[in-house]
């Protein structure tokens, strides 16, 4: 471990979910000094989110099928020398020289603390996870409409339900997990509305055969839905939410294979909440700002292009878990452990390709990544989903930009990409910086191209390169990059406050 503020850690890991936890403890067990930064107060990430101790949950593991695996990682962390830094919101990473990185972070529950800090390290592992992809539809801004992952987070972290009668809709395997959790916790789930079907998995029989645990997971969720008499409607979508002050009902319609609603098939379902999501998007802003190469995934998202040892295209920078493509917690843990071993081998000058443990991890990673690709292909958004949108539907919630305004910018002003639409309409300029509306804006802009944005059948790429990964006070941006000697001795070794004025923004 570093023993003075002028020394750096061997490795800084950003993100304390399954990938970050596995990477941090594996690298530390291999002899590296490691700092583990995460914005949350507790480890586990989104998947292993659990209630705060103050809620007095007697059995938090009851909300998780794989709690023992997380408990094992947490025990390894407790027994290690890893410096865990919770409440650290990383806003950028800079490379000062070869084997010299600086991680810049804000501290506090929401990054509101006046004193930003820097963590210096010889290498960086990005395990930043993912966020939900939302495709808008009329009424989606009504109170009572929540993300599918958000509904699960409310239950896991707050032990609350989004409503008493909750429709679960969108696309992806997360829907089954969310619906079974809500039903088991006491909510009435009138329907699971899946825009795709499940037959797409049959096109990848090898991926299914080599990942039997995924079939077991599906069986567990399916049995829970059967037990609670929850119907699953495939090739169907929510085309409208009804209500005045909050959700009162939704209209569900059948779709064709392009996700185009079939006229005359709409059916109204009474509910007081809607949990909706259309898959996950890799969170890669820190990496793309540094110039890391990316790749397109089968479901139209952008992920990092990694080699067989989890290295990005930028030397000294590794990534594990969802930034390399959505694949679930088990794949994330495997990639984190693989990255931890590879980084340790690189920093101590040992060849990384030897050893049975490394070979086994690479085999497991390839097997699970194959299933992840099959899953992405099976649930890729259909090219005609924008037909749900009326011109008065809000697409950018932050700036209240409607679908009609985006279409006008594309049709009349030649804006055929999300960045140009942003300049003309302010779509994506709000607090979320396009994370919620980016996919929708890109699709609507593509409608103005020669093929109408339909030819590929996937969400067009949007701008993922952002200089700041989280909102940052001007005082932090104005602070000097190098700390003064003799900084606060109460800080963790290798972690320093940035010098200069620290004033919260006034506007």
Structure description:
The structure is a single chain. This protein is an alpha/beta fold. The chain contains 13 helices and 22 strands. The chain has helices at residues 18-29, 67-79, 148-158, 174-184, 205-209, 212-227, 285-289, 329-348, 356-378, 403-413, 418-425, 438-446, 474-478, and strands spanning 9-14, 34-37, 83-85, 88-97, 100-107, 117-126, 130-132, 145-147, 166-171, 192-194, 232-234, 236-242, 249-254, 267-270, 273-278, 280-282, 294-296, 302-304, 317-319, 394-396, 401-402, 495-497. The strands form 6 sheets. Strands 1, 2, 3, 4, 5, 6, 19 and 22 form an 8-stranded mixed β-sheet that branches. It has a 5-stranded parallel β-sheet with strand order 8-15-9-10-11. It has a 3-stranded antiparallel β-sheet with strand order 12-13-14, with no helix packed on it. β4 (88-97) and β5 (100-107) form a beta hairpin. α3 crosses α4 and α4 runs parallel beside α6. The protein is globular and about 65 Å long. The protein starts with 8 loop residues before the first strand and ends in a 10-residue tail after the last strand. The model is unreliable at 452-458, 483-493 and 499-507 (pLDDT under 50). Residues 395-442 form the BFD-like [2Fe-2S]-binding domain. InterPro entries: BFD-like_2Fe2S-bd_dom, BFD-like_2Fe2S-bd_dom_sf, FAD/NAD-bd_sf, FAD/NAD-binding_dom, Metab_Enz_Cyan_OpOx_G3PDH, Opine_Oxase_asu/HCN_bsu. This is NAD(P)/FAD-dependent oxidoreductase.
